[in-house]
Amino acid sequence: MTAPSGTAADARSVAAIIPCKDEGERIVATVEAVLGLEHVDRVVVVDDGSTDDTAAAAHAAGADVIVHAQNFGKAAALTTGVRHLRELESGEGGVGAAGEAGGAVGAGGTGAGGAAAGPRHLLFVDGDLEGSASNLGVLIPPVLEGRADMTIAILPPQRTPGGGRGFVVRLARDGIEDLTGWTATQPLSGMRCLTAEAFEAASPLAPGWGVEVGLTTDVLAAGMRVVEVPCDLQHRVSGSDWRGQLHRAEQYRDVWRALTWRRTRKALTELAPGVARRL
Ligand SMILES: O=c1ccn([C@@H]2O[C@H](COP(=O)(O)OP(=O)(O)O[C@H]3O[C@H](CO)[C@@H](O)[C@H](O)[C@H]3O)[C@@H](O)[C@H]2O)c(=O)[nH]1
Ligand SMILES: O=C(O)[C@H](O)COP(=O)(O)O
Q1: If one looks up domain 8-277 in CATH, what number appears?
Q2: How many angstroms does the Cα of residue 88 sit away from the middle of ligand 2?
Q3: Where in this chain does the record put each Glycosyltransferase 2-like domain (predicted)?
């Protein structure tokens, strides 16, 4: 989608969706930083079955909060967050996900656009960024100005070194390249700004930790533009202990599944387009 300046797309505002599992110690700082971003007029936190006070802390910090009664994984949390956002937008009387016409911006809007101008663009934010989330603003202008359908944050070296050996990152990067011809610098980076249309192109999202690979592949396959943007973010890195390695094994599994499904679908599209369209 290209949106030259002055079109309705420019008038849309942005909603941040923050999936969280046990981020009670970090979520207040993250929400406060995101609420301060220009163009962001809603912040939805999805508590994905936390066992701590994430939901209460996020609510106190000013976010709309929705809770999963049990843990469903990051992709499901993002899906719930976007669905909840669209419900909030339809309550604003503006254009919801279905794209109906007209209506005023409700209490949650800033008047800068919001639902009245169309479904909000989305800013996906991890809950553990804390104050560094205030640097996420650079992801937004390329999408608002129609230069990108999805931007992806490129993080600097982290203050605390992680314990990864690059296996998951390589699997993800090579798989995306194989499927689309595009080389991702940080294929697992979850901080992204995208249009409502780009989100739809990648829905249903690839489950669990496959979500980033699925988003990138599906948005590119739909002929949309993906742009990487350096962004000064710091997050809690996974260590080299057993917990960190288990986490990487789960990431590897989910990324592999997302890629395998997309390879199968692509092959089917080439062989039997009619069948593939129904998948
Ligand atoms: O079941 C879960 C697990 C995590 N999260 C949240 O998802 C976000 C990312 O999780 P995190 O534990 O920080 O993952 P990392 O391995 O550190 O994250 C890297 O790799 C992930 C993909 O594997 C990306 O989603 C992240 O953006 C990227 O920073 C955080 O807000 C979590 O609270 C959930 O919502 N549900
Ligand atoms: O720590 C990381 O960077 C991620 O968990 C990915 O792990 P990897 O370094 O093994 O690809």
Answers
A1: 3.90.550.10
A2: 36
A3: 16-85
